[in-house]
Design goal:
The complex is a heterodimer. Chain A is α+β, with helices and mostly antiparallel strands. Chain A has two helices and six strands, in the order E-E-E-H-E-E-E-H. In chain A, the strands form two sheets. A four-stranded antiparallel sheet of chain A has the order 3-4-5-6. Chain B folds into two domains: 217 residues, FAD/NAD(P)-binding domain (3-Layer(bba) Sandwich); 153 residues, D-Amino Acid Oxidase, subunit A, domain 2 (D-Amino Acid Oxidase, Chain A, domain 2, 2-Layer Sandwich). In chain B, a hairpin with a 4-residue loop joins strand 13 and strand 14. Classes of the chains: A alpha+beta, B alpha/beta.
């Protein structure tokens, strides 16, 4: 698989480390209600869809940026690649 | 149908006209006591043990494709019980004991071949870890012995004993481990379950579950609605997709694991051999091909095919361990979809929906577990209580912090 890095262009996926579902960006606030079940869900439960999946890839053998890759898990087709920091900034700004 | 030497002779004389199909092709009835979703190895084993050991025979096994079309036919056929943790090891030893008696029990030749499993170690600290593992195996009643260099040279003289990067220091040897003809396992279980009246319904995909007031009372399928007192899901590889229909998120990611077969060679690999410094394991099939595998590709996938970097990595591991295979040509590779769980161990448990049960999360160790998985799942479905050897394979271990993590990798499925 080739990942179209927003800054570096097409890079081989073996340069990256895979970290799973991009929901990991949204860590629960430790002061919120039912925090135990929220952390169980955050830490252990996954939607794991057969189809479109947003996921975290870390460019360890490159510029060490975190990417959010939108990929089809049935065909391995990569639909969109974004810098995780940009996404997170957008979320935080809201 | 009973198989015997006499029967083979008799049929041979009579032009082989008396062989019959091993299972019927029934249409679904309106209702059953238990429906098993998934007609693979684990589902058929469950149906077999339910009908033969727990005397529940009003059962249907519904299968999306054809019987045994999933991972039971896509694995590297290894059986062993060389685990470390006390929650795992007795379960796998129970499984190995069932394997040893399987052919007699099913009256079906599944070619259980206990030719031994050898795990090689390459450093002093790895030796310590393997000694500990060997002791854990012995304590569960399994067999294990530690082989030094001399014994290893006798057993597998072709290993690269001169390798200075990963020097071979010895191996952990389980003589009772080995390989099995994988498809025949599904066929044997299907034959015996069918003979007790279990309906095996192929090409019948479950599209939804019938749930009312938090109770499951059947399934919707492509062949219509089938009601049932209990429903047992057993679809490792597609667990998340199936359980997602009732809104249950699982502690599982689906990953692709590739396997490889070389061209046919003369007999040269004595048993199953694993490389301790990389991820590579190999055995030789009865046709002579080297059957080998390694790591999962490492990203979520339902594609049943992998990518080249892992093929290179596995082959590098193989050549580092036994350079003699360097010129053997690779014949085929294929991929299977694994339920990679968050701690690398399986789940056999009830779900939050009453009468709906779940069996999955086998990572890439599901094949060897087939008999025990079937037996323990049958026990749970029949009695409502977990079997003693599978009592820790529960959903709530994640929230309770009782993870069964052989490798100690934490909640990152692609590292298990």
């Amino acid at each position: 698989m080739l990942i179209d890095h927003p800054l570096l262009g097409l890079r081989d996926s073996s340069e990256f480390i895979y970290m799973g579902d991009a929901k990991l960006l949204n860590r629960p606030n430790w002061r919120s209600q039912n925090i135990k079940s929220k952390f169980v869900e955050y830490g252990y439960l996954r939607k794991n869809p057969a189809g479109i999946h947003k996921e975290l890839w870390y460019h360890e053998q490159g510029d060490r940026s975190w990417l959010v890759v939108t990929r089809n898990t049935v065909t391995h087709e990569i639909l969109k690649v974004e810098l995780a920091r940009n996404l997170k900034r957008k979320v935080n700004a809201k | 149908m009973k198989y015997s030497g006499f029967k083979v002779l008799w049929e041979g004389l009579g032009g082989n006209k008396g062989w019959k199909p091993l299972w019927r092709k029934p249409d679904p009835k309106k209702g059953y006591d238990i429906i098993i979703v998934g007609g693979g190895g684990h589902g058929l084993a469950t149906a077999y043990y339910l009908s033969n050991k727990f005397d529940i025979t009003n059962i249907a096994v519904v299968e999306k494709g054809w019987l045994g079309s999933g991972n039971i036919g896509r694995n590297t056929t290894i059986i062993r019980s060389n685990y470390l943790l006390p929650q795992n090891q007795p379960f796998y030893e129970f499984s190995l004991k069932l394997w040893e008696n399987l052919e007699q029990e099913l009256n079906y030749n599944s070619m259980v071949s206990q030719r031994g499993v050898l795990n090689i170690f390459h450093s002093d600290s790895q030796r310590d870890a393997f000694v500990r593992r060997g002791n854990a195996m012995l304590m569960s009643g399994a067999d294990a012995s530690l082989l030094g260099i001399d014994a290893l040279k006798k057993l597998a003289p072709f290993l690269d004993f001169q390798n200075s990067r990963f020097p071979i220091k010895g191996g952990l040897w389980q003589p009772r481990g080995g390989t099995v003809r994988h498809d025949a396992v599904a066929w044997g279980y299907a034959k015996e379950a069918d003979s007790r009246g279990v309906d095996i319904i192929e090409n019948c995909e479950v599209t939804n579950f019938l749930v009312k007031n938090g109770r499951c009372y059947g399934v919707e399928t492509t062949k219509g609605i089938i009601k049932s007192k209990k429903v047992g899901v057993c679809v490792a590889g597609s667990s998340s997709a199936v359980m997602g229909k009732v809104g249950i998120n699982l502690p599982i990611e689906s990953h692709v694991l590739q396997a490889f077969v070389s061209e046919g060679l003369k007999p040269l690999i004595p048993g199953v051999i694993t490389f301790g410094a990389g991820h590579f394991y190999v055995s030789q099939s009865n046709k002579g091909g080297l059957v080998f595998g390694g790591d999962i590709d490492g990203y979520n996938s339902y594609a049943q095919r992998g990518n080249l970097p892992v093929i290179e990595d596995v082959c590098e591991g193989g050549v580092a361990l036994m350079p003699m295979i360097g010129r053997a040509r690779l014949l085929r590779t294929w991929g299977g979809i694994m339920d990679m769980s968050m701690d690398g161990s399986p789940i056999i448990d009830k779900t939050e929906i009453k009468n709906l049960y779940f069996n999955g999360g086998w990572c890439y160790g599901g094949f060897k577990a087939t008999p025990a998985s079937g037996f323990c799942y049958a026990h749970l479905l029949a009695t409502g209580k977990p079997h003693k050897d599978a009592k820790d394979f529960l959903f709530n271990r994640f929230e309770k912090g009782r993870l069964i993590d052989e490798k100690g990798q934490g909640n990152q499925p692609n590292l298990h």
